[in-house]
């Protein structure tokens, strides 16, 4: 059993939907990112089901996977987008996404990025500091435009997740401390070129409990009431992204469970009219992708056994960056061929001891075998690099028995194209 139904064994062979992964590896080479269109749709449907009959806008947190082919699927399903850079804005515009459904988050928005977003007509800027608010006002005024604004409030709640991906604590760089938010909102209403439209927070990622969300919501509801007393009436509440997925044995929180509880609280406060914005990333794409890799060498030692594969930390950074656990499945199971399982560290060819993808896995392996690194659809390719002059992997989308190259493998020559040597 794998964690995603679209990546399942038929006999001893692992498929993506109706497509054998071994065939894709043969056709496109490895390392290779493979996404399932059906898995994207099912993840989306869980949000749609939760939103039914409610005023909810789902803005895909596209930092999780920003390939145009993925964005286009979500656009067609009706998604808006949560962006964090001018680059991400350009991607959404490139696929004809509706700027009126874009929220712009991020602590370090540059003036040029703000200008581009104003020009495009984004729905809202999620402002993360007083200094940013000042800059936004200046840039909007100069452009003769009005910037719709939510303050991203830091509610100081513990998201009970990995410290590196927790964002809603006082010590994190994100957002404006909730204690000073009423004053900053007052300031915002007085600034030219600014229109206050919402309240925003995002407390962290890979969250599997409702508790942290509801703790944050309770604090935001007090803030919204305080703002109303000040004569500031917002139109939308953005609770960010953060819903977790199953990597191994986690029990993910269904979007409906969360939204039922959120709307119960909103209705109880007479705030059922507010639009709810969500910015899910990982939960829409994480289990819709795998990273295919081939075993180059097996190295059996006294202390450890290593399966040296052709994917590396430059392709999938999460294990070494967060100590993250990803499932590793053989693409062809070798049941009963006499090759017994041993415990391996699955490592890449990069010159770093931190270059590992999985540790202590029982696998029956031979040189040349294919492995699928599971749950790699989110924060996989997007966090990849070209370290050691390794071309970045190709990305493929599977739709039933069909497959399409969303991004070809980079060539070595393209990695140094544009570099130059001193002419003297
Ligand atoms: C502001 C903001 N919104 C949305 C997301 C998406 O989060 P996730 O992938 O956990 O759903 C992130 C990343 O954590 C974020 O920083
Ligand atoms: N990149 C992280 C999550 C950070 C989310 C971005 N705010 C991960 O791979 O889990």
Automatic annotation (TrEMBL):
In this chain, substrate is annotated as bound at 282, 318, 322, 352, 379
A GO biological process held by the record: lysine biosynthetic process via diaminopimelate
Query: What is this protein's gene name?
Result: lysA
Under what name is this protein listed? Diaminopimelate decarboxylase
Which positions does the record annotate as the modified residue N6-(pyridoxal phosphate)lysine?
Answer: 63
Give the reactions, separated by semicolons, that this protein catalyses: meso-2,6-diaminopimelate + H(+) = L-lysine + CO2
Residues annotated as domain Orn/DAP/Arg decarboxylase 2 N-terminal: 39-285
Q: What class of enzyme is it?
A: lyase
> Subunit comment for this entry?
Homodimer.
Functionally, this protein is described as follows:
Specifically catalyzes the decarboxylation of meso-diaminopimelate (meso-DAP) to L-lysine.
């Amino acid at each position: 059993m794998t964690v995603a139904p679209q990546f399942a064994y038929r006999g001893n062979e692992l498929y993506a939907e109706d497509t054998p992964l071994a065939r894709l590896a043969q056709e496109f080479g490895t390392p290779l990112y493979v996404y399932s269109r059906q898995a994207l749709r099912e993840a989306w449907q869980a949000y749609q089901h939760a939103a039914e009959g409610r005023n909810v806008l789902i803005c895909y947190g596209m930092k999780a996977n920003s390939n145009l082919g993925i964005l286009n699927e979500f656009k067609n399903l009706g998604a808006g987008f949560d962006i964090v850079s001018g680059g991400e804005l350009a991607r959404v515009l490139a696929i004809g996404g509706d700027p009126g459904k874009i929220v712009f988050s991020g602590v370090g928005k540059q003036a040029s990025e703000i200008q581009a977003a104003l020009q495009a007509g984004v729905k809202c800027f999620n402002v993360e500091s007083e200094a940013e608010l000042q800059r936004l006002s200046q840039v909007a005024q100069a452009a003769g435009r009005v910037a719709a604004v939510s303050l991203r409030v830091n509610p100081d709640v513990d998201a009970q997740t990995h410290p590196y991906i927790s964002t809603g604590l006082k010590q994190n760089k994100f957002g404006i401390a909730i204690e000073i938010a009423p004053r900053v909102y007052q300031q915002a209403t007085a600034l030219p070129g600014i229109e206050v439209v919402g309240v925003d927070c995002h407390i962290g990622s890979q969250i599997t409990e409702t508790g942290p969300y509801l703790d944050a919501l309770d604090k935001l509801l007090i803030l919204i009431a305080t703002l109303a007393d000040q004569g500031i009436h917002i139109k939308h509440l953005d609770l960010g992204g953060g819903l977790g997925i199953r990597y191994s044995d986690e029990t993910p929180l269904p979007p409906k469970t969360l939204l039922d509880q959120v709307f119960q609280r909103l209705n109880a406060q007479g705030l059922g009219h507010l639009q709810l914005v969500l910015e899910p990333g990982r939960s829409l794409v994480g289990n819709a992708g795998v990273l295919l890799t081939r075993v180059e060498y097996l190295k059996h030692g006294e202390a450890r056994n290593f399966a040296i594969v052709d994917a590396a930390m430059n392709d999938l950074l999460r294990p070494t960056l967060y100590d993250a656990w990803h499932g590793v499945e053989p693409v062809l199971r070798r049941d009963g061929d006499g090759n017994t399982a041993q415990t391996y560290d699955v490592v890449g060819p990069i010159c770093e001891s931190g270059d590992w993808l999985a540790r202590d896995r029982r696998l029956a392996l031979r040189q040349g075998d294919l492995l699928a690194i599971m749950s790699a659809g989110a924060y996989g390719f997007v966090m990849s690099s070209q370290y050691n002059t390794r071309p970045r992997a190709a990305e493929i989308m599977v739709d039933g028995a069909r497959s399409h190259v969303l991004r070809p493998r980079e060539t070595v020559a393209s990695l140094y194209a544009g570099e130059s040597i001193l002419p003297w």
